[in-house]
Amino acid sequence: MTIALSQFDEVRLDRVSRDFGALNALRDVSLSIRRGEFIALLGPSGCGKSTTLNCIAGLLPVTGGAIWLDKNRVDTLRPEERGFGMVFQNYALFPHLNVRQNIGFGLKMRGRPKAEIDRKVDEALSLVRLQGQENKLPGQLSGGQQQRVAIARAIVIEPPLVLMDEPLSNLDAKLRLEMRAEIRRIHNELGATTIYVTHDQDEALSLADRIVVLRDGVIRQVGSPKELYEEPAHFDVADFMGFRNKLKGKVVAVDGNRAVLDVEGARISGVVRERVSVGSGAYAAIRSDDLMVGEGGQNAIGAIVDTIEYRGREFVGTAHSAGGLDFVFRSHLPVEPGSRVHLRADDERVLVFAEPIQGRH
Amino acid sequence: MDAVAHAPAVEHGPNLRQRLAARGFDAVTLLAIPAAVFSLLLFVYPFAFGFVLSFEPKAGGDWLANYRRFFSDPFLYETIAKTLWLAIPVTLVNLLLAIPIAFRVRLMRNQRLLTTLLVLPITLGTVLVAEGLLNYLGPQGWFNRTLMTIGLISQPLKLVHNYWGVFASLVITGFPFTFLLTLSYVTGIDPALEQAAATLGASAWQRFRHVYLPLLMPGLAITFCLSFVQAFSVFPSAVLLGEPGGATRVISIVAAQAAFEEYDYSMGSAIAMIMGFVQLGIVVAVLASRGLFYRGPASGAKG
Questions:
Q1: What is the pLDDT of residues A290-344, one digit of tens each?
Q2: pTM listed for this prediction
Q3: Is B297 exposed, middle or buried (0-12, 13-18, 19+ CB in 10 A)?
Q4: For residue B104, what pLDDT is reported?
Q5: Cβ-defined contact of A58 to B192 (cutoff 8 Å)
Q6: Taking CB atoms and an 8 Å limit, are B201 and A80 in contact across chains?
Q7: Which of A124, A206, B149, B253 could form a disulfide with A152 if both were Cys (CB 3.0 to 4.6 A apart)?
Q8: How far is CA B131 from CA A27, A86, A307, B121, B230, in A?
Q9: The organism sits in which domain of life (chain B) (predicted)?
Q10: One domain, residues A215 and A285
Q11: A96–B297: do the CB atoms touch at under 8 Å?
């Protein structure tokens, strides 16, 4: 393997901001990325994740802060001087060049000798498993193959940092899973440092060493997939990590890291994730997997079943309460739509968050 | 049993309407009739009429007499070279000006104002532009006066009633058209391709040379052809701003003289036909060269 990525110790974003007119697309984003890490930038559309990536790549100038590669400031460099590899959402393959020319483009621009270009392109082709396709034009390739060309083209220049902007969003579900594994394999084989933008929390959880959750241009939480999944720090992070049941209520008791909420007359207790005080509004967040049909009593709330779907080993249903709360729940037994049930969750599976302040956080 | 007995009915082939529809002919095809009639009456018929007329010399003689006369009289056949000598440089200058400007304008937010300004010369028409240039570039015009005032020249430059007067007029009236076409081709290229090239280390010039230019070539060839045909049929500005007896005696002047001064419509038609074939020759040559370039969609996404 002669594709050896340039080495460095750390990429550091230091209070990076980006304004579009009056709109702050990014505000004071600070982040340190160590060599070899796989970082996912996760968030809903418009959260600033692609803006962050474009600022790192140099495609958008930052309007505040600085980006450092070890001791070198890179945010003042033009994109062609940074040498970061980038994989675009729509692949951005050069339609008039064949696979070999596309992959060799960066090396050719650097004026490398032809023999070296050929050798490195061959290696990149075998790394992304595209041997035999090298003389085709991008238009003759399938979506997954185009994606592989885009990845090969970005890594063959041996960049210190590989940037990927929602690279799987144009693929169908089966191919997406395949390419997800491929991307992680390539990352591991090369020992690359990757920043990966996605709005799909499954992708982020399965690929990343660390996940950065962004919202409204601000970092909401940084952590390992396990930390984010099990201990989301804010309500909106929990919302994004698959806590689909959001029960709005009032705090009636706080005891250490436990709080009890009054939700439409039912008592729901859970683990406090954000400071709440008695009498204030709060949310209880519960994953659909943890909300089960059961007996009334402790941590249960009455609901009317709307729909029920068979999912093989179990049923997944939706329901609503008299007060208008919506639920997604799990059940071992089929329940009839329209029937009244009690939905309950273990209290250590319930996370209690303060009511988010409207608008900006 | 009944079902089996009835089954063969399906084996009849598709009826006439279905067969026509499979080849792209259906009721909607009828909508093409007005356009077909229009071009038949206003283009095909006059062209065919002129073509036939050109083989019926007024002065008698065999059917090729007009053409023989044209190609044996230097005063006539030299107009081809004179016209080309105007039309090709003008078209190239327009194209070479349009490309960098289009690259700049593509990044602008307020393209509409600029586009309006550029379209203005087209709407003004060649005659008004020619009159304006006569005043502006003439010996007593602002341009010469300014140059003399600041002492760059001592004698007025001769810029009208010669080759350069027509050249300037053709650039002014032809540029907007060339520019708008070029702009549409330039903006049709996915900007992500340039960004990708930049992240791969290509400088601005390399991005133009290796990404934009190859993708633009087919469009630029078409732009060249359309601009060239316009410039080649130059008439008013060649008379008003040029030297219609000498350097800018273009082929359309000769055709007009034959038809409307000598009242020899047959000769006029023959010259018009020759003009048409010269244009056709250049256009075919340029379009054929497109085959050397990539001609698919200019986007980096899955098609």
A1: 999 887 667 888 899 999 999 888 999 999 988 888 999 999 888 889 999 999 8
A2: 0.81
A3: middle
A4: 87
A5: no
A6: yes
A7: A124
A8: 58, 55, 79, 13, 20
A9: Bacteria
A10: no
A11: no
**Cα–Cα distances in Å, from A262 out to A124, A270, A300, B86?**
59, 11, 11, 87
The Cα A210–Cα B244 span in angstroms is 78
- Structural domain boundaries enclosing A84: 10-235
Cα-Cα-Cα-Cα dihedral of A47, A50, A55, A59, to 10°? Answer: -140
Both A284 and A165 in one domain: the answer is: no
Chain A contact for B31 (CB, 8 A cutoff): no
Confidence grade of residue A241 (pLDDT, cut at 50, 70, 90)? confident
B102-118 average pLDDT score: 82
Q: Provide the angle, in degrees to the nearest 10, between the axes of the packed helices A173-190 and A114-127.
A: 130
Asked whether residue B255 is assigned to any structural domain, the reply reads yes
Q: Tally the domains of chain A.
A: 2
- The pLDDT tens digits for B268-290 are 999 999 999 999 999 999 988 88
Whether residue B32 sits in one domain with residue B137: no
pLDDT digits (tens, 9 = 90+) for A246-277: 999 999 999 888 999 998 888 889 999 888 88
Q: What is the pLDDT of residue B301?
A: 52
- Out of A206, A235, A264, a domain closes at A235
- Give the end of a domain, one of A213, A235, A257: A235
Provide the ipTM: 0.83
Q: Report helix, strand or coil for B279.
A: helix
A320 to A306, A327, A328, B84, B87: CA distances (angstroms): 7, 6, 9, 80, 76
Contact between residue A234 and residue A221 where contact means Cβ atoms under 8 Å apart = yes
